[in-house]
Amino acid sequence: MKSKQNITLKLIDKFKNGDEKAFDEIVKLHYESIFNLLLRLVGNKLDADDLCQETFIRVYKYIKKYKGKSQFSTWLYRIAYNVANTFFRKQKIQQFFSYDINEETIISNDPIEDYEMNPILLKSINLLPKKQKSILVFRIVEGLKYKEISKIMNISINSAKVNYHYAIETLKKRIKESNVN
User: Fold this and answer.
1) In this predicted structure, what is the pLDDT of residue 9?
2) 19, 69, 76, 171: most buried by Cβ count inside 10 Å?
3) Backbone angles phi, psi at 113, to 5 degrees
4) Cα 23 to Cα 29, 31, 63, 117, 165, distances in angstroms
5) Which residues form the domain of 122?
6) pTM, to two decimals
7) For the segment 47-91, what is each residue's pLDDT rounded down to a tens digit?
């Protein structure tokens, strides 16, 4: 059986040679994993779906520049991560200029139907700094290695490890505090 990477590389070659349908196959092959990543980063399905579409629009625009020096999934995760960052920046600007903001508007607690999680843990994760939350999702949910996370986020491997450690320590502290109260 061919690996996802090999199949993707063949599809990219077909697309670069004018086969537009090959891009549809690339999307079908990777849509679910990118949607799930974005869902965990942004917390709701509508935004995740919009961001997933935006991710693949950017992939379509830049795929001819993909050289194959890294795994396609690493390149794709990097694009999705950048799309999510742009979304978060726009969200902060909107919140800044909105007068009816409350804590519930800022902290997304939309339930993830197929992913049961302790509400205290979910809220604690959503309160983490963006970088720590992203690294936590990449490491635990996506199962990526620190080296791959560092490439996706354009940070050092050590920075990925340190931020992951701080995220875990922060979560432990918040959960412990919530159990005391």
Assistant:
1) 92
2) 76
3) -55, -45
4) 10, 12, 9, 35, 38
5) 117-181
6) 0.64
7) 999 999 999 999 999 998 888 888 999 999 999 999 998 888 777
Tell which of 96, 115, 134 closes a domain. 115
pLDDT (0 to 100) of residue 181:
60
The Cα–Cα gap between 57 and 66 comes to 14
- Please name the amino acid found at residue 174: R
Alpha helices in 98-156 (DSSP H): 103-106, 119-127, 130-136, 146-153
Radius of gyration in angstroms for the set of CA atoms belonging to the chain, rounded to a whole number: 18
DSSP string, 108-122: -----TTS---HHHH
pLDDT, one tens digit per residue, over 112-135 is 333 445 677 777 888 889 899 899
Residues 75 and 49 in one domain: yes
180: tokens are 């005391």
